[in-house]
Amino acid sequence: MTSNHKHTHAQWGSRLGFILAAVGSAVGLGNIWKFPYMLGKSGGSAFMFTYLACIVLIGLPILSAEWLIGRRGQRNPIDAMKTVAQQEGRSKAWAIIGASGTLGGYLILSFYSVIGGWSMNYIVKAGSGLFSGMTGEQTGAVFTSMLANPTGLLIWHTIFMAVTIFIVAAGVTGGLERGSKIMMPLLAAFLGVLVIYGANTGHFGEALSFLFKPDWGAINADVLLSALGHAFFTLSLGMGIMLAYGSYLGKEVNLLRSAAIVVILDTAIAVLAGLAIFPIVFANGLDTEAGPGLVFVTLPIAFGNMSGGTVLGLIFFLLLSFAALTSSISLLESSVEFLEERTRMNRVGSTLVAGIVVWLLGVASALSFNVWSDVKIMDLNIFDLLDVFTSKFTLPLSGFAIVVFMGWFMKQDSIRDELRLGGAFKIWQFIYRVIAPVGVIIVFVQQLIG
Ligand code: TRP
């Protein structure tokens, strides 16, 4: 991203730069760490199909809505919502969507950074050859002992956060995002290698039917809400981040086409990760419901038992950490932008303040895996609570408010011109006016009565 100063809000140097930043934000731990374990927890194909439906019918419209509003607002998410609401003759109170998003960004980044720390830690573990010849039981033990060590978790969380803060404070996010041009295809290629490894040595058929053989009966209220929440999480929606990116966007960019590119790339990486991991799960008799440790227990088995696995494992976790960083900078960026535009603090000061608050919150998440594992609120530890509260609550609700605002509170004529859809506009309008909001409502109500 080109740097922005207080009053001259910059624009993307190129359409490619914008797409890279959006993909960089979208593709991250959500695709490789979270998606597979949620698949495992929610019955495989049941989750896969509801997730794909949520991505297309709800994610895509909301992604383009965020960009459209951001492009008109030309400011940080809170002020952008306010500006656009005023232009449309609506209440300034709509700014609250931007505010809840910015707040949610802090909450997500706090636990995201802990997992980013795991990934960085695994660069060292894999590179040292630790996983050579290991069985699933042994890689499981490595993971469990990492969680049991609070000092280690805190150190890696601190390193991950420090790198994030450094990149955002130095205003070099653009450089990192340009790096995605090489790193993302490489990450996809590595996943491809792991899929081939799984197809040759793992229980590939079993994995395929787990992931794709329809099992409609397994779709229940919880699967629906998890899939919806994950669609928001993986596309970086509902936090005003895409809104902020839209604010740097020129009028010439085709929003829907760009949104489709981001959605397809993001989904492809997630599905590849699922295809890489589950053959290993079945071949080693591991539990599909292992939860957050799934990736960190399965992939090391593959790296530990393939030739050249030490180097490949090292590079893989480097790429994963890189993908996590391009997402974490996007999570920090929008609140920094707000502080920078609204207070007297400059970029470095704003980043330090926001970053330190997030780091502190993250300490609580890290400790919830060990010394604070008994601290429970509504039966969830701090890490789970932050995850559930954001994915199943704040993200869908702010996304809902954003599409409702676009569908029912903005002048539709200008949106038609902006989306450049011609005759197909009516269909699209039906999607963001009715399908997307009603979809969110149904999922919420199901959850309440389920
Ligand atoms: N989408 C990222 C991932 O899948 C995480 C992320 C970055 C995010 N920015 C976000 C999630 C904003 C929600 C909102 O790893």
UniProtKB/TrEMBL annotation:
The keyword Flavoprotein does not apply. Pfam families: SNF (PF00209). It comes from the Bacteria. The chain crosses the membrane at residues 12-33, 45-70, 91-115, 153-172, 184-203, 223-246, 258-282, 302-332, 352-373, 393-410, 430-449. It is found in: Membrane. Keywords: Membrane, Transmembrane, Transmembrane helix, Transport. This is Sodium-dependent transporter. It comes from Neisseria zalophi. The lineage of its organism: Bacteria, Pseudomonadati, Pseudomonadota, Betaproteobacteria, Neisseriales.
